[in-house]
């Protein structure tokens, strides 16, 4: 084991756990505040948003403690609490919550600031602006089954399909995200700045996330880092696919403890894991407040 890759393992883990513990406390506060003020609002939008946010943040806090890697079933601790299959089960609900938060928020902004009649009249444009939030959720829903199957079978092709579905999900809503950002800007002359505050932040975050994530996935992660490796393995003819109850049992019981970052995947893993359990959590904390056009007498913060 290379000591240079383990000397800072505990400091990195500690920082990540502290961030997620803080996120959980903030999440509980936001959940409580949202629930108390629900009497002032109609519909279930805010209930959905705070519930989905709570699910994601709770799972993120758990996974920040019990760091895991699905394919090799690496674990931070030698305990079943760090089981890859158990964590994949939790991630199933957390990642659907992440998708649901974006879907509901995008649909809410469409209600607050409707698209133009010309856009509605064009079938393709209307689909991009009104249906793609459902495409996002559907892609990430399907991705969960590929990820779980890949963990059990150790067939990397399924992981590649999962990652591709994530890229497709946010690529699908990128036109809508950019359009909503533009629509909020055009509303500034007719709606007070205070009422648009949440929408301005949301549309900027969503457009930035879509552009940056899709660029990373489509320019580097999928065509350079992931698919060539998967295709090479398939062409080699040495791929072994685990099946049956023994594969499920191993996915749950096998825990390979290590704190060597070289084993985890080096800098690529460090960047991905750190970002997922910090930046994504901060985005969720904002989304669970329910981005919307505020009433004249309503304050965001």
Please supply descriptive tags for the structure shown above:
mainly alpha; 12 helices; three-stranded mixed sheet; 301 residues
Characterize the structure shown.
There is one protein chain. This protein has 301 residues and is an all-alpha fold. The protein is built from twelve helices and three strands; from the N terminus they run ααββαααααααβααα. Strands 1-2-3 form a three-stranded mixed β-sheet, with no helix packed on it. Helix 2 runs antiparallel to helix 3 and helix 2 runs antiparallel to helix 12 (279-287). The longest helix is centred in the C-terminal third of the chain and has 44 residues, at 193-236. The mean pLDDT is 90.
Beta-strand fraction estimate: under 5%
Helix content: over 70%
Structural class: mainly alpha
**Quick one: biggest sheet?**
3 strands, mixed
**Largest beta sheet: what is the strand line-up?**
1-2-3
- DSSP E strands, number: 3
First-last Cα distance: 49 Å
Shape: globular
What order do the SSEs take from the amino end to the carboxyl end, as H and E?
Answer: HHEEHHHHHHHEHHH
Layout of SSEs?
Layout: H1 9-36, H2 45-65, E1 68-69, E2 74-75, H3 84-112, H4 117-121, H5 123-130, H6 132-153, H7 156-186, H8 193-236, H9 244-253, E3 256-257, H10 261-264, H11 266-276, H12 279-287
Parallel strand pairs: 2-3
Antiparallel strand pairs: 1-2
Helix pairs in contact: 1-2, 2-3, 2-12, 3-6, 6-7, 7-8
């Amino acid at each position: 084991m290379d000591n240079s890759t383990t000397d800072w393992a505990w400091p990195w883990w500690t920082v990540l756990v502290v961030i997620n513990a803080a996120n959980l406390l903030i999440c509980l506060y936001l959940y409580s505040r949202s629930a108390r003020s629900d009497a002032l609002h109609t519909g279930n939008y805010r209930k959905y948003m705070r519930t989905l946010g709570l699910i994601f943040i709770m799972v993120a806090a758990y996974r920040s403690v019990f760091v895991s890697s699905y394919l090799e079933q690496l674990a931070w601790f030698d305990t079943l609490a760090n089981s890859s299959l158990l964590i994949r089960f939790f991630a199933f609900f957390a990642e659907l919550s992440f998708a649901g938060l974006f879907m509901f928020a995008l649909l809410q902004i469409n209600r607050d600031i409707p698209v133009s009649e010309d856009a509605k009249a064009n079938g393709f444009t209307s689909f991009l602006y009104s249906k793609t939030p459902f495409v996002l959720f559907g892609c990430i829903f399907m991705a969960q089954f590929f990820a779980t199957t890949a963990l059990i079978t150790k067939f990397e092709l399924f992981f590649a399909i999962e990652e591709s579905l994530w890229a497709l999900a946010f690529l699908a809503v990128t036109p809508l995200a950019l359009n909503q950002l533009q629509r909020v800007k055009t509303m500034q002359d007719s709606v007070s700045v205070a009422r648009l505050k949440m929408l301005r932040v949301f549309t900027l975050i969503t457009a930035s996330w879509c552009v940056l994530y899709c660029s990373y996935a489509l320019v580097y992660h999928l065509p350079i880092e992931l698919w060539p490796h998967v295709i090479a393995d398939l062409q080699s003819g040495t791929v072994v696919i685990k099946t049956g109850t023994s594969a499920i049992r191993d996915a749950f019981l096998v825990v390979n403890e290590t704190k060597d970052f070289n084993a985890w995947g080096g800098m690529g893993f460090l960047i991905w894991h750190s970002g997922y359990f910090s930046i994504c959590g901060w985005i969720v904390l904002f989304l669970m407040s329910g981005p919307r056009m505020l009433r004249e007498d309503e304050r965001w913060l």
